[in-house]
Amino acid sequence: MRNTIPTATTITLDRAQLLVLDGGRGRVRVLDGAAWLTEDGEPEDMVLGVDEGHALHGAHTVIEALGRSKLRIEVAPASAASRLGGWLRALRRDAKEIVAHLQIGPAPSL
């Protein structure tokens, strides 16, 4: 699924079903079940249980249901500048990885 949902909605996901949010600030809250969440730029993934939530920071986010789960998603669509910034950060990260694989010595600072 892509982020074509309105500002706030409740969604039910089956076990292992994914929800992908491409930017937008807001909040996700688990109403029933549990969900695994990873957000670009966050140092760790997280598992959310019933009545637990997480603030979305406008980065690419993947949510996976750990069993049948009901989520409340509140998202303000990302601005063009925010989407561009996320794309540029990902491009820079990927470029560093490519340079590191191509070199025998340490990668230069980009």
Helix content: 10-25%
**Outline type:** elongated
- Our count of helices gives 1
User: Roughly how many Å apart are the termini?
Assistant: 34 Å
What strand order characterises the main sheet? 1-8-3-6
* SSE order: EEEEEEEEH
The whole-number mean of residue pLDDT values reads 83
Give the low-confidence spans: 1-6
Folded structure, characterized:
The structure is a single chain. The protein has 110 residues and is α+β, with helices and mostly antiparallel strands. It is built from one helix and eight strands. It has one helix spanning 80-102, and strands spanning 8-13, 18-22, 25-32, 35-39, 46-48, 53-57, 60-65, 69-76. The protein has a four-stranded antiparallel β-sheet with strand order 1-8-3-6, with no helix packed on it. A four-stranded antiparallel β-sheet has the order 2-7-4-5, with no helix packed on it. A hairpin with a 6-residue loop joins strand 4 (35-39) and strand 5 (46-48). The radius of gyration is 16 Å and the shape is elongated. The termini are far apart.
Keyword list:
alpha+beta, 4-stranded antiparallel beta sheet, 110 residues
Concise synopsis of the structure shown:
It is built from one helix and eight strands, in the order E-E-E-E-E-E-E-E-H. By secondary structure, it is of the alpha+beta class.
What's the layout of helices and strands?
Elements: E1 8-13, E2 18-22, E3 25-32, E4 35-39, E5 46-48, E6 53-57, E7 60-65, E8 69-76, H1 80-102
Antiparallel strand pairs: 1-8, 2-7, 3-6, 3-8, 4-5, 4-7
